[in-house]
TrEMBL record:
Alphabetized InterPro entries for the sequence: Isochorismatase, Isochorismatase-like_dom, Isochorismatase-like_hydrls, Isochorismatase-like_sf
Residues spanning the membrane: none
Protein's recorded name: Isochorismatase family protein
Keyword field: Hydrolase
Claim: Hydrolase is one of the keywords in the record: yes
Chain ranges of the Isochorismatase-like domain: 31-200
Alphabetical list of Gene3D superfamilies matching this protein: Isochorismatase-like
């Protein structure tokens, strides 16, 4: 019912997933960054000696620095430390009590702590849009592209990318700045994005643009 310890795996290569169907390119004046669910609770499942999550956190940190340098808005999602039964609803059936059972693990990982300039959205379901004002905030800032990184690729990252697409917001998932339960799940998410709703980039492609 709960998440199991996640083993290391090598990050996917471009040849591991489909080519994009669209030629969208990140525009610094149109984009925003979403750092998805990088809370201690979710990251701890990789263990303290995970080279995978170390690489992913490093790439997210680089992406955020690039965004700050280029005046690109930065958003975070974070589940509340305590959620009552009604708020958690079907998540209890699927995952058990989750973070609610470990409220001390609700903080964003130290390497990625938000600043006063960042926006932290309260996360209630897989998609960052559910019960949040993310769409309205992006519209007010004139942003119609969303760069997505964080965990877990085939769950919240993918659902947020899909809802972005349905809102007319171009989603860009960063292949080496997301992590998942397994290489298979990770590739599934990237493949689905490229085939159906967005573009997959590597961190260095964006940072050097």
């Amino acid at each position: 019912m709960t998440i199991k310890k996640i083993s290391n795996y090598h990050l996917p290569l471009k040849q591991d997933y489909a080519e994009a169907k669209v030629n969208w390119v990140v525009d610094k004046k149109r984009a925003a960054l979403l750092i998805h669910d990088m809370q201690d609770y979710f990251v701890d499942f990789y263990g303290h000696d995970s080279s995978l999550i170390e690489i992913v956190i490093h790439h997210i940190s680089q992406l955020k620095a690039w965004c700050v340098q280029n005046d690109i808005p930065v958003y975070y999602t974070a589940q509340p430390a305590i959620q009552d039964e009604k708020d958690r609803a079907l998540l209890n059936d699927m995952w058990g009590a989750g973070l609610t059972a470990f409220p001390e693990k609700a903080e964003i990982v130290k390497a990625l702590v938000p600043t006063k300039h960042d926006v932290v959205l309260t996360k209630w379901r897989y998609s960052a849009y559910f019960r949040s004002d993310l769409k309205q905030r992006l519209e007010e800032q004139g942003r119609d592209q969303l760069i997505i990184c964080g965990v877990y690729a085939h769950i919240g990252v993918l659902q947020t990318a899909a809802e972005s697409f349905m809102h007319g917001i171009q989603p860009f998932v960063v292949s080496d700045a997301v992590a998942d339960f397994s290489l298979k799940d990770h590739i599934f998410a990237l493949d689905y994005v490229q085939r159906n709703l967005g573009v997959v980039n590597q961190a260095h492609q964006l940072i050097r643009s």
